[in-house]
Design a protein that fits this description.
Strand content: 5-15%
Number of domains: 1
Mean pLDDT: 76
Shape: globular
Structural class: mainly alpha
Low-confidence stretches: 1-43, 327-336
């Protein structure tokens, strides 16, 4: 039996197929649950700006390699400076560092594939199609991390898939290349999500994010060199886009995402984060004039419904109504 203390003071005990969580101190359940929800909501809104930045960059003739390369260089510099200034211990053993850099390469591939798909797809549609990944995360988490698939979570997955199917099948013109790229990005996101869930059990969230940024930066810069599209930004518009995507679309949501994974299962985190495509669709309509067909509207509503169904409150309500408690995930009362 092994016990891991994660950010927030929670202890997760592993062994004999049972996972228990006990909160140290006198905060209590209500305090813990109240602060769990906020990072996930903010993260979805921040990540929802990525497709918009990608479209604006294409309109400004700023290449994907240049945008992403500068994005992760800037975000890495900010985060590492923060860690050094705060005196956060950042030393990792070789095996852990290699795993973090590997996740960075995966995330870098996902970013490039997603942004390149915007050449064929609208920002809203690309993001909605990307969010088939919660299904993959749930399946992998059940097989690898021994996370339960509850009734409400299964219903949320079906609802989210139905919403994505409506969006993808509304008759909008798609490029096959765009669909292939965004499907590859979805698969890479699955690997990153599950891998991050494992890493943040022993690595503080900011250190995890900073280490991943190193791998991402290397991956993106290598892509730019090989593709021959890496260049120095030349206009004020280019620099404004880079500044915006580095802070709003990268640093903030990455920290919120990894902090959230330390407190909830990867499968729940990925489903709840489907609020991201709704943000992208809304911004696409307002800022880019992207059309929203009835199918896209209904699909978006279905995705929003899946967010509600996947919430911890709904999961608890369904479990109480059915009178079933998963023995692998037992909540213990706070310590006295």
């Amino acid at each position: 039996m092994r016990q891991v203390v994660v950010p927030g003071g929670a202890r997760i005990t592993y062994g004999t197929g049972v996972r228990r969580r006990r909160v140290s101190g006198g905060d209590g359940h209500r305090h813990r649950h109240r602060h769990r929800r906020r990072p996930r909501r903010r993260r979805g809104g921040a990540f929802g700006t990525l497709g918009i930045f990608g479209k604006l960059a294409r309109a400004a003739e700023l290449s994907t390699a240049t945008l992403l390369g500068a994005r992760f260089l800037a975000a890495s510099a900010i985060l590492w400076a923060y860690l050094v200034r705060r005196g956060v211990p950042i030393r990792l053993d070789r095996r852990t560092l290699a795993a973090e850099l590997g996740l960075g390469l995966v995330y870098g591939f996902m970013s490039v594939a997603y942004f390149e798909s915007l050449a064929w797809l609208s920002a809203g549609v690309a993001t909605l199609v990307l969010f088939t990944y919660p299904v993959q995360v749930t399946l992998v988490s059940a097989l690898v991390l021994d996370e339960p698939v509850t009734g409400s979570k299964a219903l949320a997955l079906c609802t989210a898939l139905g919403g994505v199917a409506l969006v993808a099948g509304d008759g909008t013109a798609f490029g096959l290349s765009g669909l292939v790229l965004v499907a590859a990005a979805s698969l890479a996101y699955t690997v990153y999500s599950v891998g991050s869930r494992v890493m943040v059990e022993t690595v503080p969230a900011p250190v995890h994010a900073a280490s991943v940024f190193l791998g991402v930066t290397v991956a993106v810069l290598l892509y730019g060199v090989v593709a021959g599209t890496l260049a120095v930004p030349t206009t004020p518009t280019h620099w404004r886009l880079i500044a915006g995507i580095s802070v709003v679309g990268t640093l903030l949501p990455m920290l919120l995402f990894t902090a959230g994974l330390a407190r909830i299962p990867a499968s729940t985190a990925s489903i709840v984060s489907t609020s991201e495509p709704l943000t992208t669709v809304a911004l696409g309509v307002v800022l880019l004039g992207e059309p929203v067909t009835p199918a896209v509207a209904v699909g978006g509503a279905a995705i929003l419904a899946s967010v509600v169904l996947a919430s911890p409150a709904v999961e608890r309500a369904v479990a109480d109504r059915l009178g079933r408690v998963d023995p692998r995930r037992t909540e213990l009362p706070p310590d006295d």
